[in-house]
Amino acid sequence: MTAHFDSTEQTLVIIKPDGVQRKLVGRIIQRFEDRGLTIKKMYQTMLEPKKVQEHYDHLKERDFFPALIDYMTSGPVVVIILENKDVIQIVRSMIGATNPLSAAPGTIRGDFAVSTTENVIHASDSEEAAAVEIQRFFHEQ
Ligand code: IDP
Ligand code: MG
Questions:
Q1: Which residues does the annotation say bind ATP (predicted)?
Q2: Atom 23 of ligand 1 has which residue's CA nearest to it?
Q3: How confident is the model at residue 140 (pLDDT cuts 50, 70, 90)?
Q4: Interatomic CA distance for residues 120 and 22, integer angstroms
């Protein structure tokens, strides 16, 4: 195994329906390219409720879960694999906190979102999550 292979990591990003509807796709991708990250794969689709339920399984007991599923299936999303050394942590820091009160200005959520639910973007939060999510959203590609 080469050092280059060892140092390369992938993460899964979803530009959520509000991001696509508000025509933020170009500006969000620009941020990733400006940072130097590599876009490996990308497509636009309408998500099936079943796939969103799977994706947010860790939240299924929460009262906002039905609203979250409705929101995520309300319009097209853009699904992206980004690649770079340490890309999972880099992208999490670029998207900002889930709570809009904590999402720092300069982050994607801090610049484009004021809602806890409709917060423009998803990104994998660990190596384990990234592997599962890439398989979930790209196994047919
Ligand atoms: P993350 O997207 O920052 O990783 P998670 O806790 O994994 O945050 O939650 C997944 C998504 O569920 C959030 O991005 C947001 O759309 C929604 N969500 C999370 N917590 C809340 C909440 O307290 N109220 C409403 N929606 C929430
Ligand atoms: Mg999460």
A1: 16, 64, 92, 98, 109, 119
A2: 116
A3: confident
A4: 9
pTM above 0.70, yes or no: yes
Whether 38 has a binding-site annotation, put simply, is no
Ligand 1 in reach of 91 Cβ (< 6 A): no
Instruction: Name the DSSP letter for residue 59.
Output: G
Mean pLDDT of 84-104: 97
Predicted local distance difference test score (pLDDT) of residue 62: 98
Q: 């801090």: which residue's tokens?
A: 110
Q: Which of 130, 6, 7 is nearest to 79 (CA)?
A: 130
Helix (H) / strand (E) element for 15: namely: strand 9-15
The reply to whether 65 sits in an annotated binding site is: no
Q: How far is CA 122 from the centre of its chain?
A: 3
Q: Which atom of ligand 1 is found nearest the CA of 98?
A: 3
Strand arrangement, sheet containing 77-84: 38-45, 77-84, 9-15, 121-123
What is the best residue among 47, 59, 101 to mutate for testing ligand 1's pocket, by most ligand atoms within 8 Å of CB?
59
